[in-house]
Each structure stands twice: as C-alpha cells, then as structure tokens.
User: Fold this.
Amino acid sequence: MQKKRVLSVILALTLSIGCAIPAQASSISETQKKGEELQSQKDSAEAEKAALTKQLNDLIDEMDKTTEDINTKQEEIDAKETELIQAQIDENNQYESMKKRIKYMYENGNTQFIEVLLESKSIGEFLNNAEYIAQISDYDRQMLKEFQQTVQDVDDQKTALETEKVELETLQTQLQDKQNEVSTLISEKADLIGDLETAIGENAAKLQALQEEAARQARVQQEAAAAANRGNSSSGSSGGGSSSGGSSSGGGSSSPVAPITPSGSGRLSNPCPSAYISSEFGGRTSPGGIGSTNHKGRDYATGTGSPIYAAASGTVTTVSYNVARGNYVVINHGNGLSTLYQHCSATYVSAGQSVSAGQNIAAVGTTGYSTGPHLHFEVWVNGTPVDPRLYL
Assistant:
C-alpha cells in the first residue's frame, strides 16, 4: 500500500511537471524570437550609423575643400583689387595728361601748330606735320578709352569673383547645417544602439533563466520517471539512477584528463562514462521547447566540465561553434563513419589532429541550444545520422 501511495505521488508530480514544460517551452521560444528581433534591429541601427558616419566624413571633406576654394577665391579677389587700383591710376594719369595738352592748346591758341605747319619746307613735310598733330589728339582719346575699358574689365572680373565667393560661402553654410543634422542622427542612432544592447542583455538573462528552469523541470521529470520505473521493477534495485548522483563530479574540469581504456565489443566506446542517458535517438517531446522532436543523437546528462572522450580513433575534421550546436567537435573514423560531440564547454583538440579511442577531446557544457549541461552525441554513416546504439 505504501509503495502504491509513493508511486501515485511520483506519477502526479510527473504529470504536473509535464503540463508545465509546454508553457515553459512557449516562453523560451517567444523570448528567443524577441532576442532575434532585437539583434536584427541592433544590426540595422549599426548599419545605418555606419552609413551616416561615412556621410558625415564626406561632408567634412567637402567642407574642407569649399573652405580652400573660398580662400583661393579671396586671393583672386585681392589680386583683382590691386589690378583695379593700378588700372584706375593709369586711367587717371592718361586723363590728366590729355587735360594738360588740351589746356596748353587752348591757352596758346593754334599759333604753335600754325607755326609748325608754316615752317614746313615742302608740301610733303607740311602734310606730315598736319597728320602728326591730328594723331596726337587721336592718340590721347584712344589711350583714355583703353584705360577706361581696362578699369571696367577688371571691375567686372572682381564683381564676378565676389559673386562666386558668396555662392561658396552659401554652400559652406548649407554643408555646416547638413553636418549638424547628420551628427544629430548619429547621436540618436548611438542612443538607440545602447538601448537595444540593454534590451538584448535583459532578454538574454531572461532566456537563460527560462532555460535553466526548463532544464530543472526536465531533470525533475526524468528523476521522477526513473523513480517510478524503479518502483515497478520486480528486483527493487535502486541503483539505476545512481549515475546522476555523480554527474557533477567533473563540474570544475577545465583541462584534458587522462584517456580511458575502451570496453565492450562495439565499434565505438562510451564517450561520456560519468553521465546518464537523458534522451535516445529518434522521436521525442522537445525538451524545454528548444530541442528537436526528431532526435538525431544520444544525450548524456552530467555536470559541466565532465570529460568527453573520443568514441574511437580517427582524425578531427572540425572544431567550431554555431548557435544551435554550441562548441562542437567532429571526428572521422574512416570507412564513412564519423562522430559528433555538441554543446561542449571546452575543446582540447584541433582540426587535422589525430586522436586515439578514449582520448579526452572536450568537456561537457550547455553551449548553443541546450536546456542544461549534457553531451549530444551523434554517429554518422556516410553523412547520415544513425542510432548510436548500433555502434556502441
């Protein structure tokens, strides 16, 4: 009677936890989705900030060039100002010279010119002297016109340069306004990125808490199921779950341990002897809502840092990390047979390295999509996952 009562309590506990796990899985899935959305927003904001920063740098370069153009234009204006002053002086000198000659002719009448003509010794000389006197008058007028035109040309050039300078200064003001606008946008993007980083951190902490709670519930459910199985066993043995009690013995390991000697007649040896089997190959309920329902490997649950051993000798082909697998190792054993070791907290081998059966290659962890510390162990034949029990 007492035994039945205990079994009833265990069964009720198992059922209550089983009902809680789907809700926990939904929360984990939603939190993961939110984390991905936040990360996507952060990536977009960082890309926009980078584009704005480039735009700002281009504006600064353009402003520097515009400033140089303004300085050059001012130098040209100064040169034209000097040229204009000299042209005005030349014009004034020519004008004063012409006035003096006109005044002289007026004050002395035309007698001097008549005397010059009468002193001519021939008709030819007379005509030449008359033409010379006329040319003097024409020369004065022509020179004055040329000097006046020079003054006008230089003044027009100066005005054009001043107009160009004003346009450049207007452009510089516009560029400064644009620079201020872009700087403000960059500052806003930086604030947004900071807020998103905070939100991502908070969401990651929430996700970790949910995963830890899901792992705890899964362990309680497994232990309750194991206790129920022991209660139904005719032998009454209680040693079936003892492996979980030693699962934390390697929890602090951070370096390779001595190799073990493989036992058994299978092609492959146990990759994690300190663990208990928490999930077999094939269909299952998704643990914590983040594990596959079509399990392609075998899970060995034990404490973080527990040693993981090579299931057979071979060559390490991959030591890497990805979001789902976490830290993982792949070993090629030849003849199309390979093994995969996932969710490691540490790895002790590198790609291309030869390993022997029983060599410590990694440590148990909970990296990647994982509800708790364990080794996810897969066996591949010609690239296709198969049930590890066929080879162990």
The radius of gyration is 48 Å.
